[in-house]
Specification:
- By secondary structure, this protein is mainly beta.
- The protein has one helix and 34 strands.
- It has an 18-stranded antiparallel beta sheet that branches. Strands 22, 23, 26, 28, 32 and 34 form a six-stranded antiparallel beta sheet that branches.
- Strand 29 and strand 30 form a beta hairpin.
- The N and C termini lie far apart (45 Å).
Length: 441
Amino acid sequence: MSAFQNRTQTLAAGLVVTFGLWTVAFAAPGAQSPGPSSGDDAARAARSSSAPRVVLEALDGTQTVRPADAAPLTSLRGAGAAFARFLDVARDSDGEGAQAISAKDFATLELAGGDRLAGAIRGGNGDLVDLELEGGVRLQLSIDGIRSIVFAGRIPDRVTTAPTAGDDGDRLYLVAAGSLDRAIGFVEEFTVEGVTFEDQRVGSRTYEWDRVAALFINPLEEGGAEGGAGEPASGEAAAETVSVSLVGGGRLSGRLLEIGSAEEGVLLGLSGTAEVRLPGAIVSEVALDDGSFRFLSDIEPASLGSASPFGDDLGFTWPMRVDRNCQGGLLRVGGQTHARGLGVHAPSELRWDLDGTWKELRLACGVDDSGTNGTRSGSVSFRVLGDGKEIWKSEILRAGESAAQPAPLSITGVKTLVLEANPAGDFVLDRANWLRPMLVR
């Protein structure tokens, strides 16, 4: 595996930005310029009042709307907000348009530093993997910044043990006649066709991308440059750390430099002096990362329950999925798409061990819109328990209905939090979504 070299390249209709161990290449269809500078007041004044705007939301749910011609925002906290979203921005049906990525081709990448991206692998070149996000934005990521690539939709239902990393080298899991083959060794390179992998048993081979179910990459050495917010350059004023959720799944964290118009999008500071601009069309939400709240989808549950609630003999397995429904698609309830949440299949029981310092739990829930086949629809009852006591229970919810959203639930002093999704009849199509579950101090 060759060492990663810092480099800057220009792609057709896009910009490649190298920062630390990642190379990020933006090549959105009909690529747009970063937009006018913060001093271009004339251009902003000329925008139509119907242009996309920015919605700011405080932690208590209060919302304000910034006009399209407002100057860029450099601080969420300074504006009294914890979240920002683009309103009325044109998107490809939230990632389900002509460029939609099939469930089998949809990959989730866990990155060094804890960030996550999701999209379709479009090949690679040497140490770089080409990733296409929903909406057509293209990224290039260095192998040294990747910890895993998982194609959840390719893992056969009869496989009841999820692929995992190991300390014996890189691990490559390949689809093979209803099961998975595992190779242990190291990645030599990425190509357009697939992954060249040196297996301890069979030597070096190139495996086509459509055979890859999962790839886990061991870091060559501990420490070193990581992705994410990093540290500002010497002499640079400290900026707020934010997490940007992307349309279709995944998120990046960094220092907030500015939130502009939908065309300007979000400018993030990454490690060192590197910056990256995310067009508003691919940004689902910008969330302040100051410790005042935390999404449950960012916390590993202490217990996931069984992924095979009816026993392994039936061959039904539904692992919990982060920011996706239990089938691997986008979280959709009542015709609305949600960027953050947890997808499960009822019956399901998720448990978190807390430290007792959180005061509120805020969430919504519902049956995924995919939970219907025209003649039958999933039906689920949702329940929240704290230290074994019921805090809230929903009515029976069905596919196609709007999400249920209780008032903030008090969890003061709670140390064991459980989210249950229970079938209301049989278990057919009971695809349950916990939407934007959030702990608040």
